[in-house]
Amino acid sequence: MSMRDGIFTTVAVALSGVAVAGLLATDAYSQAAGAEARGLKALSMQVEMRCDACAEEAAGRLAVAPEGDRQ
Questions:
Q1: In this model, does residue 69 exceed pLDDT 70?
Q2: Helices and strands, number each (H, E), in the chain
Q3: Dihedral sign of CA atoms 23, 24, 30, 35 in order
Q4: pTM for the full model?
Q5: How many alpha carbons fall within 13 Å on the CB side of residue 62?
Q6: How confident is the model at residue 45 (pLDDT cuts 50, 70, 90)?
Q7: pLDDT computed for residue 46 by the predictor
Q8: Residue-level pLDDT at 9
Q9: Rg for the chain, CA atoms, rounded
Q10: Torsion angle, CA of 52/54/55/57, rounded to 10 degrees?
Q11: Contact 23, 30 (CB under 8 A)
């Protein structure tokens, strides 16, 4: 039983390596990484714009918040 589990594990690791190499060889990986980077930049810009609009409100909330809730 242990020998069979070792063979299945070896085959699964080999197939996973081939699948990852195939993914990296295509352009799909670089396109997905680029889309993720653009999405993260857009999200951070939205958060930054909203924080600029409510900076005074946030300062007032932090002053009233209990000590354990401050971040």
A1: no
A2: 3, 0
A3: positive
A4: 0.42
A5: 8
A6: confident
A7: 79
A8: 95
A9: 24
A10: 180
A11: no
